[in-house]
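Q: What residues go here?
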């Protein structure tokens, strides 16, 4: 288990991470979610001992970070760090040796992984010859070659097409079944909803919600309605009964105010739209993400404005 408590990290005047706590258990996929610039990658770099927190503690199965812990971590960074002129198999074997995997064992594992990712026959190609998606596959292979206890994946689906995203899901599910300790960081809410057991959503360096995926969807889904329609539904988000939500060309997911019901909503719709479906649902993580991140930004701005006003006095 990885236990991080009250992590904070500042860069100049930026609070990149502000009092973030995580507990990542064996046999689960823990989602670290948030928009770009939320503090996810900074948190992950602290977990990997790449940078030190200004305050807070990180414990791995009861012990602090050490070379022994480092050897048990499989880390996939968001940024690609491959040697572009190197050949694919040589690159994979080089990183495996750094993690202490014997050459014969490493070569067998590498060939197996290359076959699984449909890269067999590409062993002698240079990294620079690969597409971005295939370079991402090589980085995933490198992160998992030494069969790590702690698997830390920062935006692992970046550059992958839907077929390979599904393959990635199967791989991560297998790691979960093997009781690995898995941190999966992403801003792709649909993927997180399918994969993760528990999540923490951070924004502006702060935790804004946490819990199991089911708990979060239930907690935020007390009064959510899906509407499928024909016509111009741009007005839906502005209705007095609607607290928030997302509106698309022929589909809307609306969060009604606590006192409102579908029956209250219908009169606003029938005169302006042709309704094909309307039902009460639990919100998706994407809808919760948009609503929560929007509200947290407003709260941060209000707090900043209050501080500036008080300072001016």
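A:
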């Amino acid at each position: 288990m990885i236990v991080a408590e009250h992590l904070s990290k500042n860069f100049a005047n930026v609070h990149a991470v502000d009092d973030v706590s995580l507990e990542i258990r064996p046999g689960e996929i823990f989602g670290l979610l948030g928009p770009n610039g939320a503090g996810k990658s900074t948190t992950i770099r602290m977990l990997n001992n790449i940078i030190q927190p200004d305050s807070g503690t990180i414990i791995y199965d009861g012990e602090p970070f050490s070379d022994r812990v480092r050897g048990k971590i499989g880390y996939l960074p968001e940024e690609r760090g491959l040697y572009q002129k190197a050949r694919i198999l040589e690159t994979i074997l080089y990183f495996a040796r750094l993690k202490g995997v014997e050459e014969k064992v490493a070569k067998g594992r590498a060939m197996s992984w290359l076959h699984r990712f449909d890269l067999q026959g590409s062993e002698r190609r240079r990294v620079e010859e690969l597409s971005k998606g295939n370079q991402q596959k090589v980085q995933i292979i490198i992160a998992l070659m030494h069969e790590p206890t702690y698997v830390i994946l920062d935006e692992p689906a970046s550059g992958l097409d839907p077929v390979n995203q599904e393959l990635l899901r199967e791989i991560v599910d297998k790691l979960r079944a093997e009781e690995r300790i898995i941190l999966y960081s992403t801003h792709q809410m649909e993927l997180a909803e399918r994969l993760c057991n528990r999540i923490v959503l951070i924004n502006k360096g702060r935790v804004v919600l946490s819990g199991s995926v089911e708990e979060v969807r239930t907690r935020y889904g007390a009064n959510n309605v899906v509407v499928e329609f024909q016509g111009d539904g741009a007005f839906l988000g502005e209705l007095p009964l609607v607290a928030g939500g997302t509106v698309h060309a022929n589909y809307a997911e609306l969060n009604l105010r606590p006192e409102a019901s579908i029956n209250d909503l219908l009169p606003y719709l029938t005169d302006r739209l042709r309704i094909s479906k309307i039902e009460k649902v639990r919100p998706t993580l994407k809808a919760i993400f948009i609503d929560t991140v929007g509200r947290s930004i407003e709260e941060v701005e209000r707090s900043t404005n209050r501080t500036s006003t008080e300072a001016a006095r």
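A: Context that may help when evaluating the design: The longest strand covers residues 14-24. The CA atoms of residues 214 and 257 lie 21 Å apart.
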